[in-house]
Amino acid sequence: MITLPQLPFAFDALQPIISEKTLRFHYEKHHAGYVNTTNTLIKGTDLENKTLEQIILTAASDTVYTKLFNNAAQSWNHTFYWNSLTPEPQKHQISPEFLAQINKDFGNIEELQNLLIEQGLNQFASGWVWLVLNNGSLQVVTTSNADTPLTKPNLKPLLCVDVWEHAYYLDYQNLRKDYLTGVVKNLLNWEFAANNLEQIT
To answer: Which CATH class is domain 89-200?
Structure first.
């Protein structure tokens, strides 16, 4: 069995960029739904006592598990997304070491922010935009639907932004760029990203 992790902030903590209404609906309906469906699908199988990551990797290897993969991967992606966001100003600061890596691979933080917004805007339909480490270099990539960097050995996720419509439509309707700009410029948890980088380098 897997569990729905507690949000790392209060439901109203990301306002006005992400409203309490959106956050409650996103977490209590969508994320919880993925977790509940995953648990239903693994109940009574040899996957029942596996970690979420193990479930995802097993399900990704066989199309018979497509429904399980979609729900398990979405469970993991959403947890990673919540941790990629923060209302805490000190976590918006980028350490000198991490900033040096950003400057090396993108030129400066503004270029990285612009690329995250651009790639998120260009992701067709539902999906995710990720900052990853790819063979020693930082890179921005997108995945469609429930796809996740976990299934790609050379990609190590550092942070992500959800670009499924349920992440922003109640607040922004079809204005995905406004949502992306608000999140990327004001809510990203660079401390979380830097910690992830430290663990894999």
So the answer is: alpha beta
